[in-house]
Amino acid sequence: MKDVYRTIKGYGEDEIIINKSRFIGYSLPVNSEEDALQFIDEIKSKHRDATHNVYAYVLGEESNIQRFSDDGEPSGTAGIPVLEVIKKEDLRNLVVVVTRYFGGIKLGGGGLIRAYTKGAKIALEAGRIVEMTLHTKIKLIIPYTLLGKIENFLISNGLTVEESIYNENVEIILYIIKSKVDEFEKEMMNLTNGTVKFNYFEEEYLPLIDGKRV
Q1: Closest C-alpha among 116, 126, 70 to residue 94
Q2: Per residue in 65-79, pLDDT tens?
């Protein structure tokens, strides 16, 4: 997977009424097609009495897997519009389901496209679009005399300390964006006159909005 990819932070749900039809948008981040299909089945089970349960999902680093269903709506008026919303936002590893309860007024082809597009958009907004960014987990080992200086640097640069351990030295555990690790190491070496020690742990994707952890 790339160092950064766009998806949603978590489960989203919202609804809208369009010409008396009720549209409920659902979204969920997923890691596999099995997860996507399971979520679709859950929504279908929840809304057995709905007129339609339209869905689309995209998976893979290059959006390799793309699936959609009109679930009985005229071809091209439901599933594809939902899929297009996902693709225009350049999102992956998520599923969207838009449930419709027919209100008695036909929307026509253009109306359906607009309605399902809106249903997908509110689902994604509810799930919160994020940039999943690859971070490296790092432990800094510094003498107590440098703690204040390092803490000030971390705060001023918007870096979050995950854990501080006070032993013979101070151990500070935090996540640094992978592409910024070299720059961060140089800063630490300069601030500590080369006395800092680094331990490295696993890399992990963390969600960012406008460059900030959420």
Answers
A1: 126
A2: 999 999 999 999 999
